[in-house]
Amino acid sequence: MRRKLIVANWKSNPESWREAKAILAPLKRTIKNLTKVEAIICPPAIFLPDSFTLISKTQRLSLGAQDAFWEPTGPYTGQVSAAMLRKAGAKYVILGHSERRALGENNGQTNLKIKAALKEGLRVIFCVGEKERDQHGFYLKTLKQQLEDGLKGIPRKWLADLVVAYEPVWSVGAKARRVDTPADFVEQAIFIKKVASGFIGNEAARKLPVLYGGSVSPKNASGFLSVGEADGLLVGRASLCADKFSDILRQANEAKSL
Ligand code: PGA
């Protein structure tokens, strides 16, 4: 059985470790009885060491970072490397998130980050998604380009640790126009696997976990996991509330693909 991967992207929240602890501590209890889910909490990097101590080897509860620099050490003011994040307790890292891209990250830089993180032994949650959905399917070109540029030149065996998150930009964050539909997600996931197969082969592409992200809430989570057959979810706003995130974890534990 493959566990659903439910990722909490806290972004630049909350402001203090005290508040972070109040979200994280209850999840330790929630996850105890949920054997079909892995919860991956991605707090701001500064909270990773304390989070690691708090969750201390709780099964099916892991930590991730929200970005990683490609050089391990050196004169790069403000950057935190994949190696540092791993040593601080991260097992996963979100890369290529649309909010990083909006700050200027390009496909080539995402590629360097993916390569460095996989080399370091982190599992990468590679985010792709179009800004606009057009009727003619031109947006698929954007997806293809992001995937091909992001995965270029990475040794195939490293890509065993790859997870892709499909996050249409128009459905992400407080300014989201609407949520995608589970039926649409099925199509995007097939397309993503098809493009990925050129890098990892058909068999690995079939198994590649593809998550849905963008305005996930307790109201729509089970739809994406059952009808949408998503391998997991990337949750932003709703992950900052322990009750809501626990609700989503429970739904994932119950979810049956149709
Ligand atoms: P959201 O964010 O759930 O608040 O839309 C998702 C994400 O950015 O990963």
Task: Report Rg.
Answer: 17 Å
Number of strands: 8
Percentage of residues assigned to helices? 40-55%
N-to-C SSE series? Answer: EHEHEHEHHEHEHHEHEH
Q: Residue-averaged pLDDT, rounded?
A: 96
Quaternary structure type: single chain
Give a verbal description of the structure.
By secondary structure, this protein is an alpha/beta fold. 40% of the residues lie in helices and 16% in strands. Strand 5, helix 6 and strand 6 form a beta-alpha-beta unit. The protein is globular. 2-phosphoglycolic acid binds next to strand 8.
Features:
single chain, 258 residues, eight-stranded parallel barrel, binds 2-phosphoglycolic acid, alpha/beta, 40% helix
Brief summary of the model shown:
With 258 residues, the protein is of the alpha/beta class.
Topology summary:
Elements: E1 4-9, H1 17-32, E2 37-42, H2 48-55, E3 61-65, H3 82-87, E4 92-95, H4 98-102, H5 107-119, E5 123-128, H6 139-151, E6 162-166, H7 182-200, H8 202-207, E7 210-213, H9 221-225, E8 232-235, H10 242-254
The site of 2-phosphoglycolic acid has 13 residues, from β8.
